[in-house]
Amino acid sequence: MSPAGALLRAVWRRMSGRIGVVVLAAMITGAVAGPFVLPSPIAQPDIEHGGRPPSLAHPMGTDQLSRDVLARVAGGARVSLSVAAIAVAMSIGVGALVGLFAGYKGGAVDAVAMRLVDAALAIPRLFLLLLLLALWERIPLVVFIVAVGATGWFGTSRLVRGEVLRLRESEYVAAARALGGGGGRIMFRHLLPNAIGPLLVAATLGVGDVILLEAGLSFLGLGIQPPTPSWGGMIFDAREVLVTAPWASVFPALAITLTVLAANLIGDALRDAADPRSA
Amino acid sequence: MTPLLEVRDLRISFPTGGGRITPVDGVSFALERGRTLALVGESGCGKSLTSLAVLQLVPAPGVIDPSSRIRLGDTDLLALRGEALREVRGRRIGMIFQDPMTSLNPVFTVGDQIAEGILAHFDVPRREAMARAERLVGEVGIGDAKARLTAYPHQLSGGMRQRVMIAIALAAEPEILIADEPTTALDVTVQAQILEVLDGLRESRGMAVLLITHDLGIVAGRADRVAVMYAGQIVEEAPTAELFERPSHPYTQGLFASVPRLEGPLSRLTPIRGTVPPPTAWPAGCRFRPRCPIVHPRSETMPPLLDVGPDHRMRCWLAEGET
Predict the structure, then answer these.
(1) Residue ranges of chain B with pLDDT lower than 50?
(2) Which residues are registered as beta bridge partners of B5?
């Protein structure tokens, strides 16, 4: 079996990994299937009588504007999960490239890249994003995703650089060089594939981080803009009916918690599987 | 006949806190087509560094002295850069390393790794590369070649992995194979098999082999010539049979006396006293002097390589009395 296949199997063998995979799969299913089977998340069929408790017609109740909470949670899943997936893919990609080059080239390239990363890491990500969002009101979704992705790769680049520093001294890299392998071949064929374990762990843990970040920013009214449903935005919208219609904020909160938990469970299982010593 | 590979006056130095050290200090040898030359010596004598220098793989901050010469046929190997250098690495000179456990990339199959070497140097389709890989795997003595191609390194034993390493090194059909302690990490029984494989390949392909080892035992009957290294220099060089019959340098004699023999009367093993000094503490004059049981009166001056017999030279003043 290939090492990647073995890793996935090892995650599934662990209870925490299995729970995480099942929960996340359920969320993804809801996000994908939701729009086809549920009412529109922005329809306001009975605006005079909003805030109905859960019933057969509305399993999670309706919010203060009579919108179906389940439909909005599913719609929020669609937004939150795609923001997380794209932003994390972006930061992992950029981080891996920077770390790979810095670690492999060493010397001045490494020193400059890592000092810049140090500087970037000294500023909390939330502040960087708040600054941008303060300057750009009603930010388009694409720009928001890019901003989240662009502020998330610093840690990954350090991680990959560390792995590369270790791996480039390995004998198979020396062997590849002795047999005529050039820099590109060594980086992308020998170094990167062997750093994939820690990268996967960083990616899954990053998904949890980004979902929380997006929920937090949307809660502050700075992230995803209404009427696009987002979990953080839903909690923000429902804060005035927190007592009279708690379902309107409890269910999106639960969705955030479960998704972040699932991502972290998978990340932990991956880490244990990739590094047997820490199990 | 001009030698295939000629190393002349190779000097490799490293800057250290306490000044420059020169762990390889004036090494010269020649390797002829289809022959095996063994570089023998203890850890730290500079034998591995010498072999790495041939492919410009001396680890930073090591520097090859500009007066050193390494020629492969008509090519000045030390002058090569970039693409031209990569063309020689693997294609004209293959190399295998000591530890087959760590010399294979754990995330790719054996077939992938052998094919990589073929694809890097020949313009052939992938299917053809895989077919060649399968032939190579058979050639290095791995049974059930087709099934083994899809195996990952961790599924193979040490001996199998070393065979795979050899197959990778042979992928681009090099003229010279550098084997740096190819059997050190293996069981004794497997050692012999690997050496057989190397010997067979040398004969069938007319390839030259530079065998780096600390083990005189594996040199006998395999190498055509032996060069014994001590403290960055070659101290004795001769055809293998001649060297085994008449080891002349006190260091070489010490090496033989410290290895148990099967024939002849039982006697105590005599170790060489002391240890190999680090490059920072090499004595002036003959570098073996502090450990030498004889100590020639002139040994405060560094002896050159002197003839002890036909095609047999050593770096010891005692040679003067013998010729």
Answers:
(1) 323
(2) B31, B72
